[in-house]
Specification:
globular; 529 residues; 24 helices; 0% strand; mainly alpha
Length: 529
């Protein structure tokens, strides 16, 4: 542990901009949600009616979780904000821990630091101290923000600590995944896969009302703290102890491997490269194929889950106009089942934006690892090199959205008896999300070309788009602000008829952003590591 305080200061220095943005984003979203709910549902009767509706709708609980006390503003705030807040906090911790541990080893900076009087565990310990401090600060700020609006202090404290403990638990998850592989990208992918699995377990458990399934997900624990509804404080201890156990596992793995190596042995490739690797596009495919396959499987699983819920959502909503009004805030009006499907496909589009950002930032990873110089030293132009990765990002997004749409159609069609028709209809509806996803990819390309050291802003933009879509109407944000998100301009397929004009404009915007990024990349020097 020698040198840990100095490394903590170094980590805080490097994250002096990014970390405050994460914290303010999370706290601001929750505070705004509480204020909006108090304004939208001022009467007890309105809140009770809303709670009855939510409690009788498994499909809605799959997205936002259960409501434990609908008679109070605090209970409704916890219902509406817990899922998105826990996901954001978990994502912050995953990226933070990997950046300060595995990424440091992959870049060689950890070896340089290790040449000083620094203990073997100092680097991961410093990352965990920073993560713990950030989570605690988030918890305290959430408590102050909710209590400051007149909500009960005990409920506000339970909500804040529930989010903080979930963040700490996922910091432990990232600590373990950072020990398994040699590459930060793979470590992040494994950690995000754990987060996705946790979301699916919680959604499936809440929708089917299977408590064991919900309790199997750490994301479900934050909701089962029951903030503002007879709080269960012991759940906080469960999350904290699980996080500590994961940190202990990570420490044990650290002692069993060399610096720079992963606990899992790397797979050796063939002695001779296949012919397709002689082209930049073939090389890009080789680099991205694992990610495309993993995301495709994840979308197929997610699509199957929500496809099985679609018909029940429509049946329940048909006799429940109050819930139809709620879903209007999420996705619009119209046929009830198709409204649910449109909401799910919109969520898939946002998640697919994460794939697009990840794929485009592979360019920055290759450049930082000095592999770009090797490729560009051959007869490969910068345009061809970036174009290969751009094609993988655009085409990969199409593949994973198609898989999600087909899975929803197959699961939904199996219950309605027209699987073939539903698969085609919902696959086409999933493709409607593509132009917005491509805009996200184009924005990441532009950031890479112009500001290669600030490519993380692409993740910030995607999170901002998600918040505008999920909370924009609840927070009563002005229309011009909500329209900043490319997802706000998409038709709500399959509920609405397709309009080609916004899709064409978004496609043109994506092409313009990508072209501008490629042009600026050609005019700048490589930054290296």
């Amino acid at each position: 542990m020698t040198g840990t305080p100095a490394l903590v200061r170094l980590a805080l220095r490097r994250d002096r901009l990014l970390l405050p943005v994460w914290i303010l984003l999370i706290v601001g979203a929750v505070a705004g949600t509480a204020s909006a709910i108090a304004e939208l549902y001022p009467g007890m009767a309105q809140r009770v009616a809303l709670g009855v509706t939510i409690g009788s709708t498994p499909a809605l609980q799959a997205i936002t979780g259960p409501v434990y006390d609908s008679t109070s503003v605090g209970g409704l705030t916890a219902w509406r904000a817990t899922t998105i807040t826990t996901v954001l906090t978990a994502l912050m911790n995953l990226l933070l821990i990997t950046r300060h541990t595995r990424a440091e080893e992959e870049s060689g900076r950890a070896e340089l630091i290790g040449a000083c009087a620094i203990g073997r565990h100092a680097l991961p310990a410093a990352a965990l101290v920073v993560a713990a401090g950030a989570n605690l600060l988030i918890g305290l700020l959430l408590t102050a923000a909710l209590a400051g609006q007149g909500l009960p202090v005990s409920g506000a404290l339970a909500f804040g600590l529930g989010i903080a403990c979930t963040g700490w638990l996922f910091a432990g998850v990232a600590s373990v995944t950072a020990q398994l592989t040699e590459h930060a990208r793979t470590a992040n992918g494994l950690a995000v896969a754990v987060l996705g699995l946790a979301f699916l377990l919680r959604a499936g458990g809440d929708a089917a009302q299977i408590d064991a399934l919900s309790w199997a997900s750490p994301l479900g624990w934050a909701q089962r703290v029951r903030a503002f509804a007879d709080e269960r404080w012991w759940v906080l201890g469960l999350a904290t102890l699980t996080g500590l156990a994961l940190v202990a596992i990570a420490a044990a793995l650290t002692r069993r491997r060399d610096l720079g190596a992963g606990a899992l042995p790397p797979r050796h490739g063939p002695a001779d490269a296949p012919p397709y690797l002689e082209s930049p596009l073939g090389l890009a495919w080789r680099l991205h194929r694992g990610g495309v396959l993993a995301w495709t499987v994840g979308f197929a699983v997610m699509g199957t889950l929500f496809g099985t819920l679609a018909q029940s959502a429509g049946q329940i909503l048909r006799d429940n106009p109050q819930l139809a009004a709620i879903l209007d805030q999420l996705g619009g009006e119209g046929a009830l089942t198709d409204t649910f499907l449109a909401t799910v496909l919109g969520m898939m589009g946002l998640v697919a934006g994460g794939f697009a950002v990840q794929a485009m930032l592979r360019l920055q990873t290759e450049e930082a690892a000095l592999r770009t110089e090797t490729v560009l030293a051959t007869a490969v132009s910068r345009t061809r090199w970036t174009l290969g990765h751009l094609i993988m990002a655009f085409a990969g997004a199409a593949v994973i959205l198609t898989a999600g749409g087909l899975a929803i159609g197959l699961a939904h069609g199996a219950r309605t008896g027209d699987a073939g028709e539903q698969m085609l209809r919902l696959a086409a509806a999933a493709w409607v999300q593509l132009p917005a996803v491509w805009v996200v990819a184009g924005l990441a390309m532009l950031l890479y070309g112009m500001l290669p050291r600030l490519t993380a802003l692409a993740w910030a933009a995607l999170i901002a788009f998600a918040l505008l879509g999920q909370l924009g109407e609840v927070l009563q944000l002005p229309e011009w602000m909500q329209s900043l998100s490319p997802y706000a301009h998409l038709p709500q397929a399959p509920r609405e008829e397709l309009e080609a004009t916004p899709l064409l404009w978004l496609g043109a915007l994506a092409a313009a952003l990508a072209t501008a990024g490629m042009t600026t990349f050609r005019r700048r020097d490589l930054i290296g590591n």
